[in-house]
């Protein structure tokens, strides 16, 4: 197929093709915190990218040297965020793609956000779709999060807890969620929707919160919650001081998670 013309804001766009990441959200990404020039937990981020390439059938021929490019991009950055985006590349107009289509790779480094010690958390009206084939991946299809962020912006809360279409708790808009009640920690199973966060997996792998139960939980399971923790790779771990209008008395971050504060 030959593309005859592309206009960008009604001006001729001098490119023979448009990236499939822009056309279809055909790609994935990871976001890495950078401290004193060091991309934190970079091996875990590389593993995430590799898994996504495999599950999405993306041909990323230069992946083996990506680590070096990330290190170079982060060099000299005192306190920042490195975002690595991988798209399927160029592929014409239709949804189909060739096995030899080569990925495009984007590395963006920006300033770190302001430190956040605690948040208030509400409950979102919008639900996440369930799709096991994409569950856990951080794909470029983030329209749900865009709409959720708009919903949050007109709410009284810093973040919103999001359920899936079956009413099961999944995550917050910008992080995974852990909660504590009656001597037990809980976090949602993410086999149908949601993102398998780097910090979430680190907390699980290192046994930082015990005993920890992973399963499918409805919103009513948080009715008598005592403590809630949100985690992501940019901010580390953040405690929730208020949930759905209820002040949480047990809101101090567990000592074992203090090492994750960024």
From TrEMBL:
Required cofactor(s): pyridoxal 5'-phosphate
Main EC class the enzyme belongs to: lyase
Keywords: Folate biosynthesis, Lyase, Pyridoxal phosphate
Domain of life: Bacteria
InterPro entries from the UniProt entry: Aminodeoxychorismate_lyase_IV (IPR017824), Aminotrans_IV (IPR001544), Aminotransferase-like (IPR036038), BCAT-like_C (IPR043132), BCAT-like_N (IPR043131), Class-IV_PLP-Dep_Aminotrnsfr (IPR050571)
EC numbers: 4.1.3.38
One Pfam family it belongs to: Aminotran_4
Catalytic activity line of the entry: 4-amino-4-deoxychorismate = 4-aminobenzoate + pyruvate + H(+)
Pathway named in the protein's UniProt entry: Cofactor biosynthesis; tetrahydrofolate biosynthesis; 4-aminobenzoate from chorismate: step 2/2
Any one GO BP annotation for this protein: 4-aminobenzoate biosynthetic process
Keyword Lyase found: yes
GO cellular component, one term: cytosol
A GO term, aspect molecular function: pyridoxal phosphate binding
PANTHER family in the record: AMINO-ACID AMINOTRANSFERASE, AMINODEOXYCHORISMATE LYASE
Family: Belongs to the class-IV pyridoxal-phosphate-dependent aminotransferase family.
Subunit comment: Homodimer.
Cross-referenced NCBIfam families: pabC_Proteo
Name this polypeptide is given: Aminodeoxychorismate lyase
Organism expressing this protein natively: Idiomarina rhizosphaerae
């Amino acid at each position: 197929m030959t593309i005859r013309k592309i206009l960008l804001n009604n001006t001729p766009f001098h490119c023979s093709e448009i990236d499939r990441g822009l056309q279809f959200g055909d790609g994935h990404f990871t976001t890495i915190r950078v401290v004193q020039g060091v991309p934190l937990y970079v091996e875990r981020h590389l593993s995430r990218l590799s898994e996504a390439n495999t599950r999405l059938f993306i041909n990323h021929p230069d992946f083996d040297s990506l680590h070096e490019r990330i290190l170079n991009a982060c060099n000299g950055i005192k306190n920042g965020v490195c975002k690595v985006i991988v798209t399927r590349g160029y592929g014409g107009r239709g949804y189909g793609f060739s096995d030899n289509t080569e990925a495009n790779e984007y590395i963006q480094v920006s300033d770190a956000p302001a430190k956040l010690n605690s948040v208030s958390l509400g409950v979102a009206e919008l639900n996440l779709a369930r799709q096991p084939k994409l569950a856990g991946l951080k794909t470029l299809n983030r329209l749900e999060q865009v709409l959720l962020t708009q919903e949050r912006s007109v709410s009284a809360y810093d973040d919103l807890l999001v359920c899936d279409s079956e009413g099961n708790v999944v995550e917050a808009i910008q992080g995974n969620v852990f909660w504590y009640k009656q001597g037990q920690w809980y976090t949602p199973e993410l086999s149908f929707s949601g993102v398998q966060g780097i910090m979430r997996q680190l907390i699980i792998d290192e046994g930082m919160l015990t005993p920890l139960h992973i399963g499918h939980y409805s919103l009513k399971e948080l009715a008598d919650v005592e403590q809630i923790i949100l985690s992501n790779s940019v901010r580390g771990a953040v405690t929730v001081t208020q949930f759905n209008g209820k002040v949480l008395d047990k809101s101090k971050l567990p000592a074992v998670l203090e090492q994750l504060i960024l």
